[in-house]
Amino acid sequence: MPEKLNVDQLYKRCNPDIFKFKTADELPSLEGTIGQERALKSLDFGINLENSGFNIFILGENGTGKMTTIKSILAKQSIQEPIPSDWCYVYNFKDPDAPIAVSLEPGRALAFQKDMDELIKILKAEIPKVFETKEYAKQKSTIIDEFQLKQKDLFSELEDEAKTKGFSVRKTVSGLIIVPIKKTGEPLNEEEFEELEENTKKKIDKLGKMLQEKLDDVVRILRDGEKLVKETLNRLEREAALGAVGHMIDELKNKYQDTEKIILYFENVKEDILAHLEDFKASEDQQSGASPLFRMQKTEPTFTRYAVNVLVNNKESEGAPFIFESNPTYFNLFGRIEHKIQYGIAVTDFSMIKAGSLHKANGGYIVIDVLDLLKNIFAYDALKRSIRNKEIKIDDVWEQYRLVSTTTLRPEAIPLDIKVILVGNPNLYYLLFNLDEEYRELFKVKADFDSRMERTEENMHKYASFIATKCKDEKLLPLDRAGIARVVEYGARLAEHQDKLSSRFSEVTDLIMEANYWASKSKSNVITAEFVEFAINEKIFRNNRIEERLREMIAEGTLIVDTSGERSGQINGLAVLDMGDYSFGKPSRITAKTYIGKAGVVNIERETKMSGKIHEKAMLILTNYLGSMFATKKPISLSASITFEQLYDMVEGDSATCAELYALLSSIADIPLKQNFAVTGSMDQNGDVQPIGGVNEKIEGFFELCKLRGLDGSHGVIIPEKNIRHLMLKKDVVDAVKAEKFSIYPIKRVEEGMEILTGMSAGRLNEDGTYPENTVNYLVSKRLAEISAALKEKGKGEEESEEKSADNKDK
Question: Cα(668)–Cα(662) distance, rounded to whole angstroms?
Fold first, then answer.
């Protein structure tokens, strides 16, 4: 029989004497992240490699410090890198629906915006003054007077000629016409004209047509003259305004001569101003001082097209930007085009283009939680498209889903130079890696944060520095050496390994805060090990209601679990129930029944579809082990069933394989098993016992039940020997083992567990294929032989009965 574990094997203490301080406030603050060397090297590689496609995915369990680490690294890295350019949008005078993106040196976008605002402000004041000068008025008057004089001369000549020939020029609603007149000078009416002789009428018609043609020629000449005058006046206005506009535009062109886009933009601005001088002139109402009651409503001119929409301003930046986008919707990432309602219609312009976090992080880094990214429609695909095309495009993504399309803009795309860092759990990383080929091409750097680190003295000192840093940052009471040692032990328990420490620092931080609460409540100036222990127990108490309820049901007999006596075909198995925020061990009764037949070993959970694939595999391993032990020389036949009693949920995992085997062997040989033991452990086809998970919770779950019923020194748990290194048991369990009221037995082979449960030797196979008498395997083999013989005898009896029946029919 194996020896039970001693106290030192159940819990690996942290000696407070390894720390050379009294309280944690004597320690310097911790810089950097501990226990994540692999992940830190990956991050250093991914951040400094500038080739395309080497974006980063940080994966790890929650609480391992992924987000804190990357923010800390980027804060140091970005400050050393150059400040990226400013970006702004300006009006596209050739295609108003496609605003132009302009890049400027850091801080110059705001200056450009102010320069344009100042330019328009000055021109609104200066251009009206130009048209109010005497020189301009004189030139304008001269042009108009010359035209009017020419107009007067032309009409005078025509009127004189018409008068001499008995005609006059009259103005009607339809325009100027030639009409015959009487000697009195009055126009000849239609009746009077009809009374004239035929030759006279013909002569009047001929002269009238000739004069009308001359009149039409004069009108045509005057219209051409009006057009020429208008052009001359426009040219005059343009030349006059150019004196005010030209030198200002030239000054700005010289100021921004290093930016070709802005030079071209200023040329377009100048042409547009000169083409829309009416917008800059003082209104006639202002000039005339007309009452607002008697003037027509006039639309006010807009100067928005001359504005500069500053999208990204890096004037105050230090180094490259890094942004954590906490809500990565499409619009938050890529920006939006806003609209405003005017007269019931949604309108927009380039000044309503708003930046997204990709614009602000351009030239630097952006950190995104991948789960939040995938939750938002359009965001993930658009992000990949931007990385692939190296540009940021602002689109109205909902346009394709509208019944009625609305007017929108198509701003020029902005070149993208950014390092994208996604943060998520391992499941999401492997899901994207295996299902999305494009993802593999864009996120080639994997930074894997481990949930455990080695429990070396160096790491324990780093643990102490981390605790000291958290206490300073959160303004908590300092921990003494013993308190820090207890936190280190708690880290080993979280890691489920005596030689490892958990790197889920969020849980460690929570424990420190809770211990601080209890220490403060007790008016203590320091957090001791007792307060840490109390915080651990209080947290368990807040979360273990379901565990206590199940234990009560077992104690009162509602859920049947025996912890004393002996029973054949029955054993106590151990499982772990994970409630999400709390896990605990739950003893379960496993029973087996055997009888004559050829059905083999039947898993009742499988038949009722309550068994998972791993559990079904474990049952097949168990069956094959039986064959290798008892059917090497001759075949065996039996029918057996195994089940978890009072189980109403799915069964998954292989940690009950050993317990199921013991129940089955006990049922076959009718050997009673000790009910004061519980068993956990997996096995292979050779009978070697394999380690399992949750060993601490399983042991503690059975211990608490035995403690509730009264420990008498006979109670214990059988575990795989390879799980010894994972033991970090509660103080109550360790004390009970020390007082010899509870035992824990490690086993390498399944036969060792059977010997503990029965008090009998398991028995090794002899050369002749038999087992020594008075051993477990001998009794099992004997019973299997009896079952086979009974089946054979039954088969003979059925054959004889069939022969007799056939003879009777022949007769």
Answer: 10
Q: Which of 652, 657, 625, 626 is nearest to 642 (CA)?
A: 657
Among the listed ranges 79-93, 336-350, 743-757, which one has the minimum average pLDDT value?
336-350
Q: How confident is the model at residue 221 (pLDDT cuts 50, 70, 90)?
A: confident
Mean pLDDT score of the chain: 87
Tokens in use for 340? 């405003």
Give the separation between CA 715 and CA 241, rounded to whole angstroms.
Answer: 105
Rounded distance, CA 100 to CA 120, Å? 19
CA angle 700, 456, 484 (to 5 degrees): 65
The per-residue pLDDT for 357 is: 95
CB-CB neighbours of 83 under 10 Å: 19
> Following DSSP, what letter does each residue of 73-89 receive, concatenated?
HHHHHHTTSPPPPEEEE
pLDDT of residue 810: 59
Task: Specify the 3-state DSSP secondary structure of 204.
Answer: helix
Rounded to whole angstroms, how far apart are CA atoms 642 and 622?
A: 11
Q: How many residues does the chain have?
A: 811
Count of beta carbons in the 10 Å neighbourhood of residue 155: 16
Per-residue tokens: 196: 């004239």
Which letter does DSSP use for residue 353 in this model? E
Q: If you search the block for the tokens 């894997």, which residue do you land on?
A: 448
| Residue 541 one-letter amino acid | F
CA–CA gap between residue 476 and residue 520 (Å, rounded): 9
Runs of H (alpha helix) within 496-528: 505-521
Q: How many CA atoms lie within 13 A of 316 on its CB side?
A: 1
Q: CA-CA distance, 487 to 620, in Å (whole number)? A: 43
In 345-477, which ranges are continuous DSSP H helix? 357-361, 370-375, 379-389, 426-435, 437-442, 457-473
Name the amino acid, one letter, at 515.
Answer: A
pLDDT for 233: 74
